User: What shape does this take?
Amino acid sequence: MDCLLVKQDFFSYMDGNLDKEKEELITHHLENCYECSSEFADYIVIVNAISNSTPSIWHEKHNKFVPYTYIRRVAILLMTFSIAWGIYYFVNINRELHSKEKVEVLSLITKNLQYRNLLSESSLVITRQMEYKLAIKTGLERQIKDLHSIEILCENKEYSQAIIRQKKFLSDYPKTLLQKYVYMNLAYTLKTSKRYKDAIGYFKNILKQPIQEQERGKLLWNLSKCYLKLNLEKQYLTTVDRLGTNISYSQYYWKAIRSKADYEFQKYNFLKAEVLYSKYLENNQKIPYIAEKLSWIKYHKNENFYPLILFVQAKQKGIDAYYGLKIILSQYPDSPLALHAFKMCLSPEYLNVIGNEIPSFPIKHDTNKLISYFSDLSMIQSLCEISDYALYRKAILLEKEQKYELAYKVYIKIVSKQEDNTLGKISKKAILRLSKQRRSI
Assistant: This one.
């Protein structure tokens, strides 16, 4: 089970609100993962500290700082010692704090930053208020204010300004414990801003430092994406291979397996892609598009993957390569690729080129609606291979619905139009099959 998913369920796990299967999975994970079990122990300390504290600690005389009902929830979401330390500093507001305690406060805030993505918007506001109050008591208010302003810029997608502020922060506070976090955040912001070349430099520098394995996995994953965007295939493959050989990278290990499979698929290395997709599905929940690709690969092995090559080319090159889709429709109508090729041929861009305007493919796959849709398209003779395939799909659906007489008539029509091509030959076999069935009835 993934560490991040386990941490998200700490609250429900401790209160016994999970189903038995999930509770057993988390128990097993905690028994075998030192990092999560250690953090869960810290988490229990936080909850106990909050439970044993008095409301006056968390409320100022005139303005409520945190509503009573949110105290435990916020503590749970933070999952670090920061709140417990917050209590300590609020109780001791008159005590003179030393540089050692500044370091401790920065260390606690650094821990908080790891869990930002787990907080709701309201909890995030409360967390920042708490951090800022701690900063005031320790003389760190300017630094923490700058940190929060950077976070807000990123949340508002003002990336250009965020990058400027991040670089300034690194320059203004060269020795702060927050350096590593801001530096890492800058790399992610550069990637989000599509400044891939700059992001690569920052990612590579961070990876030279000692960091947790899962964080290293995340950095390598984002680095590989930057290489791919810049078409630096050799560097991309090296980085993905590095990810795909270390299962301690957790979710990023499996992302790397899937990414490498997609890459091999796009490069027509279908057998390599098959091995990687199969490995992924054996160890993860089924993803429809992966299962589909595996079915395409297995179906077309005997044709040396020719239809699959045509399909990938059409995906990559666009309308100029759509002739390959028509070959799939006319010569491989029973392929699991055929319906996907058919839908691609119905794209507005392609229909505008060939001068046709037709309704879009039905969103709800109701059989009667589909039969009606294929029937309408089969009447548009200018669509050629597309209309011929539509007529064939109509016959298949009628047969599946056990409307054998209607299906028989459609197959006869297909044979009369194109007796010697693939659709005609397949339809002849269908006619023989249905004829036997009619006689038996």
About this structure: The domain at 306-440 is CATH 1.25.40 (Serine Threonine Protein Phosphatase 5, Tetratricopeptide repeat). DSSP finds 26 helices and no strands in the chain.
